Amino acid sequence: MRRLDKGAPLRAAMKAAELDIPRLAAKTKDVDPTGEGLSRALVGFIAGGGKTAREECSDRAAELIATALGKEVDDLFQASVFTLRESTSTRRPQTGERRKSELPERLMDQTELSQFLRKSMSWIDKQIQEWAQEHESHWPGLIYVGRSRRFDPHEVLAGMQRQRTSA
Question: How many CB atoms lie within 10 A of CB 113?
Fold first, then answer.
């Protein structure tokens, strides 16, 4: 489900019901048949208006919030073209696959890259050396910042995929 008008009707309904985010989260537990409800953080993401606000949420989250506010779901949310049936939480991965959207949006140092790739730092060093000998250029995604190395994880993975397909 997608919030209507960037969540303005939702925040207006919260104000009319005299509920803040923690109270609304507690009320979702009361209306949830499983008794689980929604966390304060998730309600904050859905109801918020700042940088961390989410435009989309699961059907379940939309239904619990609307019910807790005594409103119809259609008054606060609209169905997305792509409907999310499960949680949009990043803490509950739905598949074991690594997708581009899950990649960090910043440069990594070598320690972070080794953890991300689940490879050793010496493996990365070896790849950089072999690439330099074969291609006379930097390893894909490698950026020198002063004396330190930084890595663009998108480019590193793309380079590794190209290397696999050419081998």
Answer: 22
Residues 32 and 67: their CA atoms lie apart, in Å, by: 9
In three-state secondary structure terms, 67 is helix
Query: Residues near 152 by Cβ (< 8 Å), separated by ≥ 6?
Result: 107, 141, 143
Q: How many residues comprise the chain? A: 167
- Region 51-79 average pLDDT: 91
Percent of the chain scoring above 90 in pLDDT: 33
Predicted model pTM: 0.49
* Cα 97 to Cα 41: distance, rounded to the nearest angstrom: 25
CA–CA dist 52, 67 (Å, integer): 24
Question: Which residues, 6 or more positions from 65, have their beta carbon under 8 angstroms from its beta carbon?
Answer: 10, 24, 28, 38, 43, 46, 47, 76
